[in-house]
Amino acid sequence: MQSRSRKSLMHDSVPGSSSPHGITKNILEMSLNQARGEVNMDAYLVLFSELVSYCRDRVESVMALQEKLAQLGYRIGRRALELILAREKVSRRETRLLNMLNFIASTLWNFLYGKQADCLKKVRDSELEYYIEEAEPLVNKYISVPADYGHFNCASFSAGIINGVLDSAGFPAEVTAKVLARNGDEDLSQQQGQPLTIYYIKFEPEVLEREKRLNG
Amino acid sequence: MAVFSFYLFDRTGTCLCYHEWQRTRQPQDMSDDHKNMFGMLFALRNFSIKLSPDAERGIPSFFVTDVYALHYFETATGLRFVLNTSNDFKGVDVTHALSEIYNSVFVEYVVKNPLYTRGNVIKSDLFITKLDDYIRALPCF
Amino acid sequence: MSRPSLQALGDASFARSEHVSAELLALTYGSFVRQLVQDYESPSDVNAQLESIGYNMGVRLVDDFLAKSNISHCSSLAKTAEVIAKVAFKMFLGVSATVGVWSQDKKTFGIVFDDNPLAEFAELPEECAGLWYSNVLCGVIRGALEMVNMKVECRFERCRLRGDECNEIRVSLHEILVEQPPKGED
């Protein structure tokens, strides 16, 4: 498996080394029940805010900033999928749409954020459009968006992660992060209570065609 | 006990935040007032350490007059928190309250806000609201 | 009541804080480093960028650190070194670090650690041979110490990604900044 060889590549270059903590780590040998490594959330968020600043200094518009964050997230998505599959020792890829979406909302979310996504919904009258709801995205925890940034949302980063996972798994789609008021309106000026972030997923038509073929 | 005013300075003397609840004698010029306050604190602190039997310690916690008291807390990063209260604050550890304001209000709502640059005046309404809430919740307010 | 050891303080501060997956950190950091490698020509430029990003992070994290760990001040460079290794590394990265060898003049020390959450899935390709992957940590230490009036220089000495047996950052004290009286003081 690709990730396994990557891991041992790192350690092969250290002939005769032995970590005082013993064994070379091998993802495939890691127990599923092993407590996840964890780090301080503030350390993560401070790094993330530097990432946003770095991108902000190198783009011309708010749209471009969102795209840049999405690109960075995309890279993560591709690697996250490999890691999860290696760890769960899954040999078969998901080929069905709903199973893939459930994978995202539960397994992927758990891997990244330690919990399941709040909600997975389908857009009425469309076989290709779905969305995942998230009340409090991790990346938005300390960020307050200035008025001149319009609809900017750091959760574009997470949307990029979802996109990377879907593409890697053979489910090409367009994924965007939006912020809605509780009543579903995009107009936040009348909002009451905390706004909701949604990851809107629109699959490419070829995904639907394959799904129909698999349905027989 | 009545709470009069709050100042927060950084180590260069910039007043990052000033908030008042009651102030009977308004100064002519606020920026002069801030400069004087910082200058006085700087001198008081250094003098206090000079008098101390331990060269590393001796930072004042408060001074009391016949009408008011000034409470002081500073951090290793040079932030100086000041609360002016009436002088009947017996039994209330206001310096500790200031350290709590540092821990739970300043760090949470200013330091962690990625849009805040160190050394700038705090413009966050959220910080002022939380500060106000904290002070009003003190048993002696 | 005896003061808790620095180790215990580090463990407690880490346990009290909110956590995120170390893998999320590693993947995010990896994506960031990839972007820098793309944007900058040479590994030494990337190293400089990482250090400066780390500096900004350190300036922010220091108040959070002092507030949560309840450490008011460090009386000596030796104490500072212990606090960085035993408390700060544990509190933020969840890993144990130790203070390494001191220089002759007692102005430089090492921070040595085995596990590095930032480098969890990383490997260094040949064209990045000069890269100190986790150089951001050097910036964090420099930024944080500057806020407590210590001007230091930090650099990586050993890195497991480069084949060394452990990770080590050397921290050198250049000067202790003295607070200047405010301008216009009578």
What would the keywords be for this entry?
heterotrimer, B: 141 residues, alpha+beta, Beta-Lactamase, 5-stranded antiparallel β-sheet, 21% strand, C: 186 residues, Muramoyl-pentapeptide Carboxypeptidase, domain 2, 5 helices, 46% helix, endoplasmic reticulum (chain C), NO_sig/Golgi_transp_ligand-bd (chain C), golgi apparatus (chain C), ER-Golgi transport (chain C)
Approximate helicity band of chain A:
40-55%
Whole-number tally of structural domains of chain A: 1
Low-confidence residue ranges of chain A: 1-35
CATH class of chain A: Alpha Beta
- Please report which band the strand proportion of chain B falls in: under 5%, 5-15%, 15-25%, 25-35%, 35-45% or over 45%: 15-25%
Distance between the ends of chain A = 32 Å
Look at the structure and give the mean pLDDT of chain B. 89
- Helix-strand pattern of chain B: EEHEEEHH
What is the N-to-C succession of helices and strands of chain A? HEHHHEEHEEH
Largest sheet of chain A: 4 strands, antiparallel
Q: Kindly report the CATH topology of chain B.
A: Beta-Lactamase
Structural class of chain B: alpha+beta
- State the fourth-level CATH superfamily of chain A: Trafficking protein particle complex subunit 3
Number of helices of chain A: 6
Organism (chain A): Chondrus crispus
Pfam families (chain A): TRAPP (PF04051)
Family (chain A): Belongs to the TRAPP small subunits family. BET3 subfamily.
Protein name (chain A): Trafficking protein particle complex subunit
What does this 3D model show about the protein?
- The complex is a heterotrimer of chains A (216), B (141) and C (186).
- With 216 residues, chain A is an alpha+beta fold.
- Chain A is 44% helix and 13% strand.
- Chain A has a single domain, classed as Trafficking protein particle complex subunit 3 (Muramoyl-pentapeptide Carboxypeptidase, domain 2), CATH 3.30.1380.
- In chain A, strands 2-3-5-4 form a four-stranded antiparallel β-sheet.
- In chain A, helix 2 crosses helix 3.
- Chain B has one domain: Beta-Lactamase, CATH 3.30.450.
- Chain B has three helices and five strands.
- The mean pLDDT of chain B is 89.
- Chain C has a single domain, classed as 2-Layer Sandwich (Muramoyl-pentapeptide Carboxypeptidase, domain 2).
- In chain C, strands 2-3-5-4 form a four-stranded antiparallel β-sheet, covered by helices on one side.
- In chain C, strand 2 and strand 3 form a beta hairpin.
- The mean pLDDT of chain C is 91.
- At the A-C interface, helix 1, strand 1, helix 2, helix 3 and helix 4 of A face strand 1, helix 2, helix 3 and helix 4 of C.
- Strand 1 of chain A pairs antiparallel with strand 1 of chain C.
